[in-house]
Design goal:
The complex is a heterodimer of chains A (253) and B (308).
Chain A (H helix, E strand, L loop, with lengths): L6 E13 L2 E7 L1 H6 L5 E4 L10 E9 L4 E7 L3 H7 L6 E8 L10 E7 L5 H8 L3 E8 L6 H4 L4 E6 L6 E2 L2 H8 L5 E5 L2 H14 L3 E4 L15 E3 L7 E3 L6 E3 L6
Chain B lengths: L4 E3 L2 E3 L3 E3 L21 E7 L12 E4 L2 E4 L8 H12 L5 E6 L4 H11 L6 E5 L10 H4 L2 H14 L4 E4 L7 H10 L4 E4 L3 E4 L1 E2 L4 E2 L5 E5 L4 H14 L4 E4 L5 H10 L3 E4 L1 H5 L3 H16 L21
Parallel strand pairs in B: 3-16, 4-7, 7-8, 8-9, 9-10, 10-15, 15-16
Antiparallel strand pairs in B: 1-2, 5-6, 6-14, 11-14, 12-13
Classes of the chains: A alpha/beta (253), B alpha/beta (308).
InterPro entries (chain A): Cbr1-like_FAD-bd_dom, Cyt_c3_hydrogenase_gsu, Dihydroorotate_DH_ele_sf, Dihydroorotate_DH_Fe-S-bd, Dihydroorotate_DHASE_ETsu, FAD-bd_FR_type, FNR_nucleotide-bd, PyrK_electron_transfer
Cofactor (chain A): FAD; [2Fe-2S] cluster
Function (chain A): Responsible for channeling the electrons from the oxidation of dihydroorotate from the FMN redox center in the PyrD type B subunit to the ultimate electron acceptor NAD(+).
């Protein structure tokens, strides 16, 4: 019988610090790169056996020609700290690609909203989306990846401490611009998504929101990472399996 | 090499099973492993009606283990019969259904609905630490265990496994109560009640505050309990709790387990069940063991089993 999912030891092609506690890692696996879709994630394994569970990391870029994936992640706990110490040329166990990503709709005007470590998966999205793009990026303090977005559309930056761009959050910026929006895509902290959700629902703008939740298996078996939805047949959906991207109408934040 | 073992009246092609709650209904893992290779698939706890489970965060990693407070989210027995049994029947493996309930009547309702299905074995879950009613409330008092077991047994056509909680003082007493109630087999252990606090955020790691600890961190407790129970009862035991590889499985079998269930290891490695099976075969090859049954209970009451 044929088995469709893989967990592989992939080579780390590049690994470097790009901002305070934020790393980029390029991993090589042709099969995984070919299968990857925008908005999906992979699960990275620690080598220290005391840390059992894989760490879900969003896919920042897909390089199909070279068969590589770019992952940008923040050191958050002991697991990501260990992963950040892996050297270029080393191998890392990777499971994926996992989850359902964004459904790219080629509308006239798309708005892309990212917050913190929710920014990375939006880079590949911006690469793949056609039409006019307005990209709103929010950070606590340190800005990363923002320059790379400029190749794909107008970029607006907000920082909580005001060190770069607008002082405050991306929602204020978005409302200020008063754009005529056809489609919204977003990934970021729950507070940001919640504010965005209430805005798009009120304005009746179609939106896809990528949500985060603590997960164990990453493949839908443990039912650890659920989020509430308006679906009557399946209220609690799995972020790793049915998500991480949900429509703004469906997800309850 | 004979790998077959018997749980109640049911013959398994090998002792490797999945631990309830860690394998869904098998669908997710069928993308990684060939379910035909498994002795049995033990599915996630099924209740009479759909359960939503607990709020998030539901999982947290701990040193060598994890805590969960999923709270037995499941789509209910009718959904299971309609959607999951046809899927599982495509494979040459035994189907074991873990039964969740808030009351004895709940358990019996599920058992009755499953009685005319192609389910091979039932596992009575009286040990989940994450639900307020039913679950552990039934599984920590010997008299209650005996009563629930005998009541459910009266309604069940399939052999009945009772899954025991480790959150008790005397595990053998609980095992004897389940056996007295008519259990055809016992599975142990379920998760240990635990807690994790994030000292930086000053909050509980789980929304439920407390949860069930599983993974290799609990293996010595589980092996000890299997060993104690194996000396007390005559029914077969399915051992589980931190089995990560074939050697862990052999250890449980020597402590008295007839079958072994792989749980949290699936989350850490979706191929864990197959690696456990290969590891058992490898061990048997290395030591010239022709029949896996030779290993069961080697450490129990055997004077040649050294302690030094």
């Amino acid at each position: 019988m044929s088995l469709s999912k893989i967990k592989v030891a992939t080579k780390i092609m590049k690994h470097s610090l790009i901002a305070t506690d934020v790393y980029e890692m390029w991993i090589e696996n042709k099969e995984m790169a070919k299968a990857a879709k925008v908005g999906q994630f992979v699960a990275l394994y620690c080598k220290d056996g005391s840390r059992l569970l894989p760490r879900p990391i969003s896919i920042c870029e897909i390089d199909n020609e070279e068969g590589r994936l770019r992952l940008v992640y923040r050191v958050f706990g002991a697991g990501t700290k260990e992963i950040s110490c892996f050297k270029e040329g080393e191998t890392i166990e990777v499971l994926g690609p996992l989850g359902n990503g964004f459904l790219t709709k080629d509308k006239n005007v798309s708005v892309i909203v990212g917050g913190g470590i929710g920014v990375p998966p939006l880079l590949e999205l911006c690469k793949q989306l056609k039409g006019e793009k307005h990209i709103f990026l929010g950070y606590r303090d340190t800005v990363f990846l923002a320059d790379e977005f400029k190749a794909y559309g107008d970029v607006y930056i907000a920082t909580e401490d005001g060190s770069v761009g607008h002082k405050g959050n991306v929602m204020t910026l978005l409302k200020e611009k008063g754009l005529d929006i056809d489609q919204v895509y977003a990934c970021g902290p729950k507070g940001m998504l919640k504010a965005l959700q209430s805005y798009v629902l009120e304005e009746q703008i179609p939106a896809q929101l990528s949500v985060e939740e603590k997960m164990a298996c990453g493949i839908g078996a443990c039912v650890g990472c659920i989020c509430e939805t308006n679906d009557r047949t399946m209220k609690n959906k799995r972020v790793c399996k049915e998500g991480p991207v949900f429509s703004a109408e469906e997800v309850v934040l | 090499m004979d790998l077959s073992v018997k749980i109640g009246s049911v013959q398994l092609k090998n002792p490797v099973m999945t631990a309830s709650g860690t394998f869904g209904s098998g669908k997710e893992y069928s993308e990684f492993v060939d379910l035909n290779e498994l002795g049995a698939v033990v599915v996630k706890g099924i209740a009479s009606k759909p359960w939503d489970g607990n709020p998030t965060p539901r999982v947290a990693e701990t040193y060598g283990g994890m805590l969960n407070a999923v709270g037995l989210q499941n789509p209910g027995v009718d959904h299971f019969i309609k959607n999951d049994i046809p899927f599982l029947k495509k494979f040459d493996t035994k189907i074991v259904v873990n039964i969740a309930g808030r009351t004895v009547e709940d358990y019996c309702e599920v058992v009755e609905k499953l009685s005319d299905t192609e389910v091979d074995l039932l596992e009575l879950n009286i040990s989940c630490p994450n639900v307020k009613e039913g679950g552990i409330a039934f599984g920590t008092q010997a008299k209650m265990i005996e009563r629930v077991t005998s009541e459910v047994k009266r309604h069940s056509k399939q052999p009945l496994i009772v899954k025991l909680s480790p959150n008790v003082t005397d595990i053998a007493e609980m095992a004897l109560a389940a056996e007295a109630g008519g259990a055809d087999a016992l599975s142990l252990i379920n998760t240990l009640l635990g807690m994790k606090i994030d000292i930086h955020k000053r909050e509980f790691a789980l929304a439920n505050k407390m949860g069930g600890l599983s993974g290799p961190a609990i293996k010595p407790v589980a092996v000890r309990m299997v060993y104690q129970v194996a000396q007390a009862v005559k029914v077969p035991i399915i051992g589980m709790g931190g089995i990560m590889n074939g050697e862990d499985a052999i250890e449980f079998m020597m402590a008295g387990a007839t079958g072994v269930a792989v749980g949290t290891a699936n989350f850490a490695n979706p191929f864990a069940t197959m690696e456990v099976l290969d590891g058992i075969k490898g061990y048997m090859d290395r030591y010239g063991v022709k029949d896996v049954k030779e290993l069961i209970g080697l450490a129990v009451g055997n004077i040649e089993f050294n302690c030094m």
